[in-house]
Amino acid sequence: MAGRRRSERSTRKALRSPGRPPVARREHRQAFWSAIAGGRSSEDAATDAGVSVPVGARWFREAGGMPPSHFASSARPPSERYLSFAEREEIAVLRAKGHGVREIARRLGRAASTLSRELRRNSATRSGGFEYRATTAQWHADRAALRPKPAKLATNVKLRDYVQERLAGRIATPDGKKVAGPNVAWKGRRTGPRQDRRWARAWSPEQIARRLRLDFPQDESMRISHEAIYQSLYIQGRGALKRELTACLRTGRALRMPRSRVSGRGKSFVTPEIRISERPAEVADRAVPGHWEGDLIIGLNRSAIGTLVERTTRFTMLLHLPPLPGHRDTPRAKNGPALAGHGAEAVRDAIASAMTTLPEQLRRSLTWDQGAEMAKHAELRVEVGLEVYFCDPQSPWQRGSNENTNGLLRQYFPKGTDLSVHGIDELAAVACALNSRPRKTLDWRTPAEVLDQLLRAGHIETVATTD
Predict the structure, then answer these.
(1) For 120-203, where are the E strands, in sequence order?
(2) By mean pLDDT, which of 79-83, 186-190, 288-292 is the weakest?
(3) How many independent structural domains does the chain possess?
(4) CA 19 to CA 143: how far, in whole Å?
(5) What are phi and psi of 438, to 5 degrees?
(6) Which value, in Å, is the radius of gyration of the alpha carbons in the chain?
(7) Compositionally biased, Basic residues: which spans (predicted)?
(8) Of 100, 120, 145, which residue is a domain's last?
(9) What is the pLDDT of residue 166?
(10) Is residue 462 domain-resident?
(11) Residue 331 is part of a domain; what is its CATH number?
């Protein structure tokens, strides 16, 4: 037919301005999500994959923080029946050299009909002709391979309204009357969008998914998994649930957090040789004095008091941690100095000052949690001769004596109060009160009496008194 454009022979539907081809190949995306699965940040994963940081951040955001199914580590590799990007590059080079379809097919080990369809379907047709480019051809092939399935929440209006109402925290009485739930204001202590949170009156996705079977026992169309609800919230383009409903989740996250990234999150200064599992056995039976447990109690405006408890006698010492100059006077700087008074240097100096007043026999070990305030523990070991061990994450029972003492200290330093107003003399008075209090675990003797008895029995000069 005269005047007919060659591009019409491609048999491909007209494109509605889909934009430019992607900036990276499948191999790049595969390397990116493999790095994410290994615990890397989106910026570092983008660098490892050989793409720019903004591209990696966009991939992470569009996927909701989790790899698409065809890029997951458990996904099957592409079938060899499909042309790879390397083959398409070779086709483009051979085509530019003027080789015919059968010659190119012979060199690639493919059928001539495969090459004919490839050139007809995936060539660039913007100019009206056929210009084969590997990047454009791969882009067309990827688009044709997509089998998009509409989200269930997008097609079932009744189900979507049910999920949104309970996810948004619209509470109703058994007779259907809607009531206002509790208002939980944002206090800057939880992750997620910085706005008033509605999780106190909202249902979790799992609660919604499980409740559907009770509310609609006969209606099989009112079924959805909690994973599908999460994906509708996190993945862009699903078009089912409003993005701002992520503020109703208890985590408040707008993106998923890869599990490997969380498991790899730890304190770099906590090495295997100083974990609590390596602590000497004599510490556990409390027969030998000189082993301590330590922690911080936190108050208003990031104020803190350090606590040290001797395991055998329950003798307590309190560390004065006053705020440094500039605290509250200037805006808090990210990664700036710890002006609140309980940074690593301040805690190290306070522990060293308290421990040097004790004889060497009472400075055997110190067990602490994995707080950043103990990042200078190596210097403490050198200066004071105190072996420092760290508990396992989220295991406060491994410092049971210290946790119990902290509960007693809250009688004198209530939660939600400014602890920086208490001076050294007041802390000494509180410690004296605790050390002079009879304890059931000590057969109703006081910690000061037990410590004094142990010191005398060991022919060590008494340095801890309550007089």
Answers:
(1) 171-172, 178-179
(2) 186-190
(3) 3
(4) 12
(5) -65, 145
(6) 33
(7) 1-15
(8) 145
(9) 81
(10) no
(11) 3.30.420.10
